[in-house]
Amino acid sequence: MFAVKILKKDFLRKKSATIVVFAFIMLSALLVSGGSNLIVELINSLNTLFEKADTPHFVQMHAGEINLAEIDRWAESNTLVQKHQSVEMITMDGSSMFFGENSVSEENSIMDISFVKQNSSFDFLLDLNNNLLNVLPGNIAVPIYYMQQKNLKIGDTIRIKGDSSDITFVISAFSRDAQMNPAIVHSKRFLINESDYVLIGKHFQGREYLIEFILNDIEKINEFSETYSSSGLPSKGPAVDYNLFKVLNALTDSIAAGVIIILSSLLMIIALLCLRFTIIITIEEDSREIGVMKAIGVSKGEIRKIYLSRYMLTGALASMLGYLASLFFNQFFSSNIMLYIGNAPKSPLQQSIPAISAFIIFLIVTLSCVIILRRFNSITAIEALRQGNTGGSFKAEKLFRLKKTGISNVNIFLGARDLLLRFRMFGLLCFVFFFCSCFIIIPVHFLNTINSPAFIAYMGIGRSDIRIDLRQSDNIAERFSSMISRISDDNDVHRFSPLVTSRFIMINGDGAEESINIETGDFSIFPLDYLKGRAPEKENEITLSFLNSREMDKSIDDKIRLFVNGVEKEMTICGIYQDVTNGGRTAKGLMPYNRKSVLWYTLSLDLKPGISIENKVHEYSESFHPARVTDLGSYLKQTLGSTINQLKKVTIAASAVGLFVSVLITSLFLKMLITRDSSQIAIMKSLGFSIHNIRIQYLTRSLLLLIFGITLGTIFANTLGESMVSLLWSFMGASQIRFVINPLQAYVFLPLILMLTVSITTIISITGINDTSIIEMITE
User: Is it the case that residue 394 has pLDDT exceeding 70?
Assistant: First the structure.
């Protein structure tokens, strides 16, 4: 009964503290439940999409004519193949496509546009309910990417500019494409009726093929890839497998899930710090009751259980409500998944994972309470707390005197002095401000980074004004040579660099042959940022992307063996660079290439000062049709658009949470501190200090702590924060992200918002001092 009275008294006396601790535990449980649900949703929905689309295990893209009978014979004789098909696509340049009434074509789009009819065997295009898509004559199913980018809706039109006349389609559906869904994949398939496909084919001569295979054993994809690459079958284009399809589809949402879970972890740390402070203050104030319980024979273990039960109850309720709240927020967290991948039914085990995550939060809270309460096993420790042993020292008191500091304002001095003498207690608020700063600064820095032109360095591309991509087409080598001649004679061009991506055969560590795509050319004109080493300078030197080097277990000065024009050569690795494109597995060198194995051509160039990039992009788009001409800003925006949008949502949410946390903790801390300092405040008022003077002291403490916390948070964000983001992106191919920092935003605007928020909260929280008389303070 005595224990119940203590718990009831504790709840009534510390409503604000209980509410704040409760709120943080609930928020942490909400985020970790939402993050874990996002991961489960992503994995489950992706598996369902791939199952319903019957996604191929291996796809060889090819530009040019193919011998269907030869491919059929080879596939039927290969024991690894379960079924196969060769899918024809009609390709067109973006300059021939217009959305709705828009008079501006898609000529500056980085996407390769193809028209297809629905497949009959596998690799199906699906609607937004993940059902098989079929369209009527005159209708068209548009990739989700364009629905989001162009804000399209059912009933809108698409106009195709043909050789002799325009062809108009009505959008009847939006399609999910397991192969080409994400923005980072620069190919998009538009689904039309078979009769319209014949009509389009009369106006556009470009053809590409997807040579697709489903294997008997998905674990043998690498073996099959090596077999295909050595078969001599068509291969003028990239080869992509099932695993890479999954990685590319999961890229955007996996980043969002990682950020959400990191934010949840930070909130959990704040909740535990807040909990520790509350428990210490509670034990200090309840020292008499604890002494009475010990005097009547209640054991230390029983006393701990009384307090532990209160915090276990708080943790259990908060974790449960956090989980329940996450059920309402799941749609917000997984909106991108539901749009691009679809929603899939979950098994009971999958549905229970978010609840298990919330339960883990409860276990962490309980374990932390047990550890904290073990520190107060004897009445001696409680007596020491009751008598005001808060971590100050006689030495600090002697050193921090008014005449030695040079501080002219007594109130500012007293606020700063008290902060120094009781810094162990004020450490909670400092840590909270530190974490709030990290909450806000790290997402803002990364958003600035991914929005910056400098992010091109993480895509395995040197910085330039314009990039021209020439994919496989008739007389492609001659067209590329003509393009180089035209640009070299253009007086508006400052410098340019032609590059060629080809397929080479490499001898791996097991002695088996496997294919590797290598970009060749002069990489000193538009240099990359290297993690290690430098650009290749000799024909026997090669640089590898980070993921390639990690998977091959190779580093600087290691050797790899390549077949160059049929001759085996030993290549020395001279550099490691970052690349999140093409699955993060690329390489660059100076060796000669075989024209028959060329996949695509690229040309980067810088214009002279004063030349309009936009006008030059338009000029080259017309001159070099069907080459894809883009400026680097547009290239980044179109490639990473959905990722940037997701990150913007996370950044806004993180900033709101950071400010919300700073308000709650500042309010809680100051209210509890004022209650604890009631006698000291009474003495100061009796000595002639006004309410205004006392408030300045408390405001000084808060702002000094905030400045210190922001400074630590900024340092952390710019160092370990970078490392955290780099670790997250290392799985995509960028292991060393360097934040692009906006100094005005990072060092002025964001700190001012935090300072303003904390100042207003402090002023509001200390108004209660004026409502309490000196006699009440002393008698309390």
Answer: no
